[in-house]
Design brief:
The protein is α+β, with helices and mostly antiparallel strands. 32% of the residues lie in helices and 17% in strands. The protein is built from 7 helices and 9 strands, in the order H-E-H-E-E-H-H-E-E-H-E-E-E-E-H-H. This is Phytanoyl-CoA dioxygenase.
């Protein structure tokens, strides 16, 4: 299959199903490296040494800073103070993510905006999100919802599984699923099953205010200017810095509010 045909097939699957799975996007060695970094990150978070996390039982931001109730995710893997930031940068800005993402969005690398990179982990007790659409609140009318769903995609979101993961769709370690985060979806977390899934998004320049709010509500605008990409290969570092600059153009997000209230 030609590269053009493969890209068309990816876009057709996303349009038809709302998601597209890419098996074995990362090698077993990469998965091992990412998994080790995630283990270290979860350990410092549960020990109260990393302040950015998703606290139980809150589903959406803002989360509180009380780790004693348990966590179900770790935030801000690209944060300049994240101990394993270099490893997470390589997984976020690498070709295994960027190549299919530019195909799905039909854009160049110079159009991409750095967005969110988090980790979804095994919760301290069973936990499930309600059915939701990330950028569309539950109280909008059916007409507004349909209008939003018919708008062109200005971003893509993905999950990179480091363990077997069936929360959204069935994934094996190293698989990536890209999906439209405005499809109706939910996550179900079993406290008995280990989970480490890197959860990211990238956007396009020219995003609408609702998308900017969905990103900036996580606080990324307050620290992105301090990111250092000098450990990346020069071409990748240039890509990362350009994406960061386009994120900073959206603002710090001091008064954007939140997409959901629960």
């Amino acid at each position: 299959m030609s590269e053009a045909s493969r890209q068309c097939e990816l876009r057709a699957a996303l349009a038809r199903d709302g998601f597209v799975r890419i098996p074995a996007a990362f090698s077993p060695q990469d998965v091992y490296t990412f998994r080790e970094a995630c283990w270290r990150t979860v350990e410092i978070t549960r020990a109260g040494q990393w302040p950015h996390f998703r606290s139980l039982p809150k589903q959406f931001p803002p989360w509180n800073d009380d780790v004693s109730q348990g966590i179900w995710g770790v935030q801000n893997m690209l944060h300049p103070q994240m101990p394993d930031k270099e490893t997470f940068q390589k997984s976020y800005f690498g070709d295994a993510v960027v190549n299919p993402l530019t195909a799905l969005l039909q854009c160049s690398r110079d159009d991409l905006v750095m967005e969110l990179y988090n980790m979804l982990c095994r919760p301290d007790r069973d936990f499930a999100l309600r059915w939701h659409r990330d950028d569309i609140g539950p109280d909008v009318s059916a007409e507004v919802e349909l209008e939003r769903l018919q708008q062109p995609m200005l971003h893509a979101q993905w999950n990179l599984a480091l363990y077997e993961d069936s929360s959204l769709v069935v994934l094996h370690p190293g698989d990536i699923v890209f999906y439209n985060n405005n499809i109706l979806h939910r996550g179900v977390y079993d406290s008995k099953n280990e989970r480490m899934t890197l959860h990211g998004s990238m956007g396009l320049v020219g995003t609408d205010p609702a998308r900017a709010r969905n990103i900036l509500q996580h606080g990324i605008g307050k620290w992105a200017s301090d990111c250092d990409f000098s450990d990346l290969p020069p071409v990748t570092a240039k890509l990362a810095d350009g994406m960061r600059q386009r994120l900073l153009a959206l603002g710090k997000g001091d008064d954007v509010g939140y997409s959901h209230q629960d």
